[in-house]
Amino acid sequence: MSGGYPQPERSRGVIALVEQNCTVCMLCVRECPDWCIEIDSHVERKPAEGPGGRPHSVHVLDRFAIDYGLCMYCGICVEACPFDALFWAPDPGYSALDVRDLVHERDRLGEWVKDVPPGALPAGLELPGASEGSQPAAGGPAAD
Amino acid sequence: MSAPFEEAVLRAVLEPALGEGLLEVGTATGTAYADIAPHRWHDAVGAARDGLGLAWFDWLAGVDELEEGLRVVVSLLAPDGAHRGHGVLLRTLADRSAPQVPSLVDLFAGAAWHEREAHEMFGIDFAGHPGLRPLLLPDGFDGHPLRKDFVLASRVARPWPGEHEPSGRSRRRNLPPGVPEPGTWGAGEAGS
């Protein structure tokens, strides 16, 4: 932050998406008070797995976008998500000259996961491509 | 290292300065707050600034509390000292029919923009403000869009993203939470 002012504790940066945890339940979209999340998906059939398994359908995410030109940083989506797919990351540095450039799609939302404090992520979460990185294991001992 | 303000500290400074004008002191989501009688608003903010080292004007906003009135909230923070980065909330309730509270511009020049915004968004009058021109709304905008009885055109014109059914699922028709059926919303809706 510029100047000598400390960042107030309530400061929020950006909402990061752990895409692998999203089940396309639409809860965040429907709870969002200012309608800034858009999701699209399609269905894929999965073959039976293991003994007694049955073929089943899964929702595959096609689009997950947050319009930070609309977002008011209330965090209701983060709280509403039952599958640990949305997290606060303390990055305030994504201003844009055009309001349309504040719509961030799932690839960018996913990149912000590396900024999420490790203690905030669910224990045992393994992120694709994170294993050989220098980043400490996100799972680690659960923080209080 | 740096600690939040406790209720007792806030009370110790405001009570001698305001007496009956201090209505309530409490703590919400970890921040101490004080409710102030509207006519003592300016005195309260001055006393908190000078008595608690709250020299950092953080923000000022309105809240539409419906029949209770229109609330004005100011967040003041301590830029240094033992409470560095922490602050308090001061709140006052203005009468809905003629909402007016004293302006804080002579205490914090930066309050001018916030009061202009609260003026256009909620219709709150800040007595003593040097010029309550619209800050964000376009010229000629009619109404106070953050009052709860104001119909937001974008809520009518734009489809609710929650109505979309991904993967082609079918579901009963959804309504966005908090948005009433068209035609039942807003004071003058019946005839329009």
Tell me what you see in this structure.
The complex is a heterodimer of chains A (144) and B (192). With 144 residues, chain A is of the alpha+beta class. Chain A has a domain at 17-49 and 56-118: Alpha-Beta Plaits (2-Layer Sandwich). Chain A has helices spanning 27-31, 76-80, 106-111, and strands at 14-17, 37-46, 56-67, 86-89, 103-104. In chain A, strands 2-3-5 form a three-stranded antiparallel β-sheet. Chain B is built from four helices and seven strands; from the N terminus they run αββαββββαβα. In chain B, 21% of the residues lie in helices and 23% in strands. Chain B is of the alpha/beta class and 192 residues long. Chain B folds into two domains: 7-127, 2-Layer Sandwich (Beta Polymerase, domain 2), CATH 3.30.460; 151-192, no CATH class. The longest helix of chain B is centred in the first third of the chain and has 12 residues, at 7-18. Chain B has helices at 7-18, 41-52, 111-122, 153-157, and strands spanning 22-28, 31-36, 56-64, 70-77, 87-94, 100-102, 125-127. Chain A binds chain B through residues 4-9, 24, 26, 29-33, 35, 37-43, 59, 62, and chain B through 2, 30, 56, 58, 77, 79, 84-87, 158, 160-162, 164, 166-168, 174, 176-178.
Q: Give, in spatial order, the strands making up the sheet with the most strands of chain A.
A: 2-3-5
Output mean pLDDT of chain A.
84
By helix and strand content of chain A, what is the structural category?
alpha+beta
Helix content of chain B: 10-25%
Number of strands of chain B: 7
CATH-derived architecture of the largest domain in chain B: 2-Layer Sandwich
What is the beta-strand fraction of chain A?
A: 15-25%
Low-confidence stretches of chain B: none
What's the structural domain tally of chain B? 2
Can you tell me the CATH superfamily of the largest domain in chain B? NADH:ubiquinone oxidoreductase Nqo5 subunit
Largest interface: A-B, 23 and 22 residues
CATH topology of the largest domain in chain B: Beta Polymerase, domain 2
